[in-house]
Amino acid sequence: MARDCCRVLMLLAACVPLALPAAEIYVSPDGEDVNPGTRERPLATLAAARDAVESLAGEPVTVRVGGGTYYLEEPLVFK
Q1: Tell me: the pLDDT tens digits for 20-32?
Q2: Residue 73 — left, alpha, or beta (φ > 0 → left; ψ -120 to 50 → alpha)?
Q3: DSSP classification of residue 13
Q4: CA-to-CA dists, residue 2 to 5, 17, 27, 57, angstroms
Q5: pLDDT exceeding 70 applies to what percent of the chain?
Q6: What is the rounded radius of gyration, in angstroms, for the C-alpha atoms of the chain?
Q7: Strands (E), 9-60
Q8: Alpha-carbon separation of residue 56 from 14, 15, 21, 41 (angstroms)
Q9: At CB < 8 A and 24+ separation, what contacts does 71-79 make?
Q10: What are the tens digits of pLDDT across the range 19-78?
């Protein structure tokens, strides 16, 4: 019986989808848009973050926005 329970647990574990870690993009008023958007080298604008998200084509993404003031020249739309 213990062997059957172990088999059932192994089967259930195999059926659980693994959560994919989300890519992270960092934005800071002190960053630069030529940076890769890492914690150490953040982007400067939310528009650059949006473009980086779109370049990842459907992958889960988290945009981390550092404290500060961000000015928008046009509405910001994430697709």
Answers
A1: 678 999 999 999 9
A2: alpha
A3: H
A4: 5, 25, 52, 45
A5: 75
A6: 20
A7: 23-27
A8: 28, 27, 13, 18
A9: 72/46, 72/47, 76/46, 76/47, 76/50, 77/50, 78/50, 78/53, 78/54, 79/54
A10: 667 899 999 999 999 999 999 999 999 999 999 999 988 889 999 999 999 999 999 998
Residue with tokens 């604008």: 45
| Residue linked to tokens 């500060």 | 68
Between strands 61-65 and 23-27, the pairing is parallel
pTM (2 d.p.): 0.71
First to last CA, the chain: 52
Q: Look up residue 57 and give its two tokens.
A: 């084509």
